[in-house]
Write a structure and sequence with these properties.
By secondary structure, the chain is of the alpha/beta class. The protein contains 17 helices and 14 strands. The structure holds uridine-5'-diphosphate-glucuronic acid. The site of uridine-5'-diphosphate-glucuronic acid has 20 residues, from α9.
């Protein structure tokens, strides 16, 4: 089946490569010349484990190519996936200009009836708006589908090839039929396939992201109480998580959630709910607690250093989470900014995101070697949960740091080992050591 994927960012590129792996003939379309040029030379615009190899495999097999020409990508396609960005407007509402343009492009260049699949996260009723617009500009039939993705950066390829669920919202049987054949190659796995109406699918995606953000904020609220009371938030999360009705995932307290999705999606969901006459105040608290988690980490560093001005602080992890080079809405960079504004000298290091961090926060010094960063430091802060930070050479660090202090904003170190190595250790929502 020929499939056009409009927008080859984090969602679109993974979607295009996965569809090609499933055996479809895929063209990835984007209006960013440099991105398409790079992809045609085998250069990926971002780091995602396994994606480069997958793209090499499916392009070599002739099932995936990239184009800037909508006519080339869309003509003859049975399905067009819209994977364009839906950033926030100032009031939190999603800006759907890119979705409108993607739909317009499909409308203008479709050479027959076509399924238009909205993959990136959009507000409820977006499909209705797209359908109305397409009817005005084309003589063909458009079958609208909401097919939200649930992939996570850092495990996007795995999540897409082995999803736990597939969600397809459509109001016409023909659309459901075609989408089943699109995903047929994944059906022999243990995947739950939800075939619903469009509005339910649009809403369900928001519900999932908002609920996951709520879980994280709940854990961060508990961490505040644990910090004040001496209880251990990791053990509390383990105990809660052993109840299958609660589940352990997304109960890790830390610096709060970041990235391109949760911050904008929670805000957009709140605005949408209000449009439907419901004040979803719970989401305000989710956002507030997320900000408090960052402030609390800042206060912890500030307090332990006594006078922060001129102190050298190493920040380990600059991406919004591990296994990505994405620094959009990265809590680590927000913390860096707070520390720099308070007068500290901050040196950052990330296994993948150094370049992106330099571009995003030029006042942050970024170095390519973790131990070079730690030389002469008064405090080391673990801001992103990269697995390699769990294996730090503590005795080497102790030898090169001016003050042996570690603030573990992601709780990835073993408190006993850090204590034995002679550090003052300040985790999040857990009792401090050697304070
Ligand atoms: C999230 C969802 O998990 C995906 O299901 C969804 O498809 C995606 O958004 C999207 O809407 O496109 P992603 O933003 O890639 O995926 O990353 P997550 O793994 O969800 O992490 C988000 C943030 O929460 C990160 O900053 C992470 O460090 C933080 N987090 C996560 C915690 O602070 N604690 C946790 O227990 C889990």
């Amino acid at each position: 089946m020929k499939i056009a994927v409009v927008g080859v960012g984090h969602v679109g590129l993974v979607t295009a490569a996965t569809l090609a792996k499933m055996g479809h003939e895929v063209v990835g379309l984007d209006d960013d010349d440099r991105k398409i040029e790079g992809l045609n030379q085998g250069k990926l615009p971002f780091f995602e484990p396994g994606l480069k190899e997958l793209i090499e495999e499916v392009t070599a097999a002739g099932r995936l190519r990239f184009s800037q020409d909508p006519a080339d990508a869309i003509a003859g396609a049975t399905v067009a996936f819209s994977c364009v960005g839906t950033p926030s407007r100032a009031d939190g509402e999603a800006n759907l200009l890119a979705v409108e343009k993607a739909a317009e492009s499909v409308g203008k260049h479709a050479t027959g009836d076509i399924v238009f699949v909205q993959k990136s996260t959009v507000p409820i009723h977006t499909a209705d708006r797209v359908q109305a617009m397409l009817r005005r500009i084309s003589k063909h039939r458009f079958y609208l589908v909401s097919n939200p993705e649930f992939l996570k950066e850092g495990s996007a390829v795995e999540d897409s090839l082995h999803p736990d669920r597939l969600l397809v919202g459509a109001d016409m049987p023909e659309a459901h039929e075609i989408m089943r054949s699109v995903y047929e190659p994944l059906m022999n796995q243990n995947v739950t396939y939800f075939a619903t109406d469009i509005k339910t699918a649009e809403l369900a995606k928001h519900a999932c992201n908002a609920f996951l953000a709520l879980k994280i904020s709940f854990a961060n609220a508990l961490a505040q109480i644990c910090d004040a009371s001496g209880a251990d938030v990791c053990s509390v999360a383990d105990i809660m998580g052993s109840d299958p009705r609660i589940g352990r995932a997304f109960l890790n307290a830390g610096l709060g959630y970041g990235g391109y999705c949760f911050p904008k999606d929670v805000a957009a969901f709140k605005v949408q709910a209000a449009r439907f006459g419901y004040e979803f105040d719970l989401l305000d608290d989710v956002i507030k607690i997320n900000q408090q988690a960052l402030q609390s980490a800042f206060r912890k560093v500030n307090d332990v250093l006594w006078n922060i001005e001129g102190k050298r602080i190493v920040l380990l992890g600059l991406a919004f989470k591990a296994l990505t080079d994405d620094v959009r809405e990265s809590p680590s960079l927000y913390l860096a900014k707070l520390l720099i504004d308070a007068g500290a000298e901050v040196i950052g290091y990330d296994p993948q995101a150094n370049q992106a961090a330099r571009a995003q926060l030029p006042e942050l010094q970024v170095v390519d070697d973790l131990y070079e960063a730690a030389e002469g430091a008064h405090c080391l802060v673990i801001a992103t949960e990269w697995p390699e930070f769990a294996d730090l050479d503590l005795s080497r660090l102790k030898g090169i740091m001016t003050h042996p202090i570690i603030v573990d904003a992601r709780n990835i170190l073993d408190p006993q080992l850090v204590a034995e190595a002679g550090f003052t250790y300040l985790p999040t929502g857990r009792p401090p050591v050697n304070l």
